[in-house]
């Protein structure tokens, strides 16, 4: 269901800025965290971070991974500026569950690092990041954490009047222009939502001269070769409200064309169409509410070698989720649920390293919470039935793929506690046992993967991945001052990883060919024992203003925001480090606010990463400085936010320890150099 957006979203944004003063204020999503918090408690047991409003606006990047990078425990896979997934506590891929409004958001980003996540922060209301394996209701693929994108495309609460927001932005580092609009309106019986966005960027500037063999821009330049990107999309949705609940539907689309920076003349044309139906019924009786979500996602992308289409990937997924919340029994409240997901995947072309496949899963889950005089206890369980089938290749000349099926029955359980030690102190703890069924590519891959420069080999005999995770946290708050710290350890008895075998393969797949040209190192999926340990901390200290050391009437407020994390991941069988683990990080920001003005200046320091497995490249330490300035004003009923920010002020040359390109494509894909961005947001 394509939309002919092109540059229309930017035009709509400009038009809306001119007319927004005549619109009435609309309601927006509340600030209650929903991810891993199905019962709506105010205090969260699982460690969760939420981004919305100005916090999301000032962090917004063109990819999900880079938008979230730097949050406690969160880094990025960084396959250049156009494709990155979040890495949480050292885990990435299918151990991080990406959701859209609490439902499945399938794509091919976990299959290969060069595949982008088809979402954009321009039309996202809030992003919630749940760290750790305590969200059992989302399955074994959430063992590392959950990222939930909330966009209100199906409004869940009535909207009185009409309103929305519009965004315009321009960045110098890649000459990016971006624009987005969101319109909402309704009354106590219906609500409507419409959004659209467009993003267009050129090559990304870096502090080093790089060679480029792209026919359109050959030669040497201080830009990452083949890093331009264009994305556009939008949605419309609506909800009808009745006395005992509501029902709504939405249709959305995403289109993107971007360069894959590992290859100078390869681009990806991506499309994703999603249709969703959601509703809630409050019948009374034992079950106080029944909430259901159904969605269909049609995803596909084509990899072009110059102007010629190459490998085509498609993935069509149906998702059903039903949750029934029971009434309170004493101090006990909770819910039971059912989830079904069916995905059909295919890859056709010379670089198809995985066969056509189908994955079906059915799950039952339970989540309960018990209120006590000292805090709250939570416990949950989940059982699944997963079937993964391989159909081989549609090309009869390709016979290297395994054909057949595997069945798995993962079971998981978790318990958590929140203890109120004093009005200012809380302790939290989570213990979870999680099982995950292997993915289709982990079982059946067998072919050259150009993006990683390897020959990937699956293992049809893989068993379930099993892990036990423990998390201990403390929180303190006194007025504007606060601090959080979490320590964790996760131990895998069968961690499925892609490991070097020592073999090399020729272009025809022959193992250890005599010719040295056109060979690829062989990497195979296998299970090992592994351990992840880490620490996360963050907080705010009021230096000036209310409750600070000084409080002059007109001096505003000055806060020191600090953060830091570290993770250590080890293959216990060999006592070697696991690949692509973020180094120790520490950062601080001075935030000054006075009336309509807010100014921020800070840094993030990344330690050197020398703890890498054989064959991976070590990275040097680096520090990225940044600054921003915002000014808020009101024009009739419209609230305007003017902003400017500078990233990587010192134009530091740096390489990401969590990016595979640092090893496979060095030195061609450093982190972006200095860039200034200016923009305007209007809410009305």
UniProtKB/TrEMBL annotation:
Residues annotated as domain TonB-dependent receptor plug: 43-146
Assigned keywords, A-Z: Cell outer membrane, Membrane, Receptor, Signal, TonB box, Transmembrane, Transmembrane beta strand, Transport
Gene3D superfamilies: TonB-dependent receptor, beta-barrel domain, TonB-dependent receptor, plug domain
Descriptive protein name: TonB-dependent receptor
Annotated membrane topology: Multi-pass membrane protein
Highest taxon in the source lineage: Bacteria
Signal peptide extent: 1-24
Source organism of the structure: Variovorax ureilyticus
């Amino acid at each position: 269901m394509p939309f002919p957006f092109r540059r229309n979203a930017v035009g709509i944004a400009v038009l809306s800025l001119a007319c927004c003063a005549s619109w009435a204020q609309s309601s927006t999503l509340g600030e209650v965290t929903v991810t891993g918090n199905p019962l709506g408690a105010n205090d969260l047991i699982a460690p969760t971070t939420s981004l919305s409003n100005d916090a999301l606006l000032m962090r917004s990047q063109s990819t999900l991974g880079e938008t979230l990078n730097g949050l406690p425990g969160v880094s990025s896979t960084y396959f250049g500026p156009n494709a990155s997934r979040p890495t949480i506590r050292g885990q990435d891929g299918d151990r991080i569950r990406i959701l859209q409004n609490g439902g499945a958001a399938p794509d091919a980003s976990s299959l290969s690092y060069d595949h982008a996540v088809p979402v954009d922060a321009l039309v996202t209301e809030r992003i919630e990041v749940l760290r750790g394996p305590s969200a059992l209701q989302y399955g074994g693929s959430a063992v590392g954490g959950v990222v939930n994108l909330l966009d209100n495309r199906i409004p869940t609460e009535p909207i009185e009047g009409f309103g929305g927001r519009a965004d315009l932005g321009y960045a110098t580092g890649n000459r990016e222009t971006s624009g987005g609009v969101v319109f909402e309106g309704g009354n106590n019986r219906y609500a409507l939502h419409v959004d659209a966005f467009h993003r267009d960027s050129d090559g990304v500037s870096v502090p080093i001269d790089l060679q480029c063999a792209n026919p359109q821009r050959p030669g040497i330049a201080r830009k990452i070769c083949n890093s331009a990107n264009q994305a556009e999309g939008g949605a419309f949705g609506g909800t009808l409200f009745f006395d005992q609940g509501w029902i709504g539907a939405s249709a959305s689309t995403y289109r993107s064309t971007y360069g894959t920076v590992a290859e100078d003349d390869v681009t990806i044309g991506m499309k994703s169409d999603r249709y969703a139906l959601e509703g809630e019924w409050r019948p009374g009786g034992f079950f106080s509410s029944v909430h259901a979500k159904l969605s269909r996602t049609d995803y596909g992308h084509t990899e072009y070698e110059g102007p010629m289409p190459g490998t085509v990937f498609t993935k069509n997924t149906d998702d059903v989720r039903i949750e029934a919340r029971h009434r309170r029994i004493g101090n006990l409240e909770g819910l039971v649920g059912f989830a079904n997901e069916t995905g059909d995947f295919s890859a056709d072309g010379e670089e198809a390293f995985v066969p056509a496949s189908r994955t079906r899963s059915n799950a039952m889950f339970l989540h309960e919470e018990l209120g006590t005089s000292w805090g709250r206890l939570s416990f949950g369980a989940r059982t699944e039935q997963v079937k993964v089938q391989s159909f081989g290749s549609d090309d009869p000349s390709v016979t290297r793929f395994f054909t057949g099926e595997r069945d798995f029955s993962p079971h998981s359980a978790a318990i958590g506690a929140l203890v109120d030690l004093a009005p200012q102190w809380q302790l939290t703890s989570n213990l979870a046992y999680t099982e995950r069924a292997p993915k289709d590519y982990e079982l059946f891959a067998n072919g050259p993967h150009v993006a990683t420069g390897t020959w990937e080999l699956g293992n049809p005999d893989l068993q379930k991945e099993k892990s036990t995770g423990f998390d201990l946290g403390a929180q303190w708050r006194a007025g504007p001052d606060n601090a959080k710290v979490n320590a964790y350890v996760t131990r895998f008895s069968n961690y499925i990883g892609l490991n070097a075998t020592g073999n090399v393969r020729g272009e025809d797949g022959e193992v250890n060919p005599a010719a040295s040209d056109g060979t690829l190192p062989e990497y195979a999926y296998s299970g090992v024992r592994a351990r992840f340990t880490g620490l996360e901390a963050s907080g705010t200290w009021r230096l000036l203003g209310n409750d600070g050391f000084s409080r002059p009437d007109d001096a505003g407020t000055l806060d020191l925001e600090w953060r830091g994390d570290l993770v250590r991941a080890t293959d216990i069988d060999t006592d070697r480090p696991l690949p692509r683990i973020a180094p120790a990080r520490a950062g601080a920001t001075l935030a000054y606010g006075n009336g309509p003005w807010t100014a921020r200046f800070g840094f993030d320091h990344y330690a050197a990463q020398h703890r890498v497995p054989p064959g991976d490249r070590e990275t040097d330490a680096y520090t990225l400085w940044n600054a921003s300035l915002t000014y808020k004003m009101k024009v009739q009923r419209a609230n305007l936010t003017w902003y400017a920010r500078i990233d990587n002020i010192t134009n530091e040359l740096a390489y990401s320890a969590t990016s595979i390109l640092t090893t496979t494509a060095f030195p061609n894909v450093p982190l972006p150099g200095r860039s200034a961005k200016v923009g305007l947001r209007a809410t009305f």
